[in-house]
């Protein structure tokens, strides 16, 4: 069961999506920018047989493996300690590549190149899912953490340039209007 609004919307979106259960296979997923594994534990592990996790902070991966994931840690095949600019996922391995709140930390070019590499890592019918904050207009740079929030149309353009097709988009509901909108984009 999904424990909070952020993961609950991910579960709901997955369960009723055109790429969800019964469409894409459920053998292996990759969680990019996974942190300690909240999305892995709450969204992906209940669905997928095995997983791989990637984060650039080793302490997060260690905490996920040693504490947070509990018995489910045995189902994680590989922990990648890389930033996404350096990660080249294995070819034709994943049914889902999930990126939640990490696309905003990549430049347009780095994001496009990473998506191109992820496309090669998909198994037949596999999908890439980005869930991230999206600007209401243009792009907005956060001077504190150097993240960039892009408008949905700008994100779609990057996806197109990476040679991917948008399958579906969904806005996360349940957030106050004062909060930057969060969107999920599924692509192949």
Keywords:
single chain, 188 residues, alpha/beta, Rossmann fold, disordered N terminus
The CATH topology is: Rossmann fold
Could you say what the CATH architecture is? Answer: 3-Layer(aba) Sandwich
- Number of domains as seen in the coordinates: 1
What percentage of amino acids are in beta strands? 25-35%
* CATH H-level superfamily: Vaccinia Virus protein VP39
Q: Round the mean pLDDT to the nearest integer and report it.
A: 91
**First-to-last CA distance:** 27 Å
- Please outline the major beta sheet: 9 strands, mixed
Counted beta strands? 9
The level-1 CATH class: Alpha Beta
Number of discrete helical segments: 5
Q: Work out the radius of gyration.
A: 15 Å
Topology:
Elements: H1 5-15, E1 28-32, H2 38-44, E2 50-54, H3 58-68, E3 76-80, E4 94-100, H4 108-121, E5 122-135, E6 139-141, E7 148-151, H5 152-161, E8 166-171, E9 182-187
Parallel strand pairs: 1-2, 1-4, 2-3, 4-5, 5-7
Antiparallel strand pairs: 5-9, 6-7, 8-9
Helix pairs in contact: 1-2
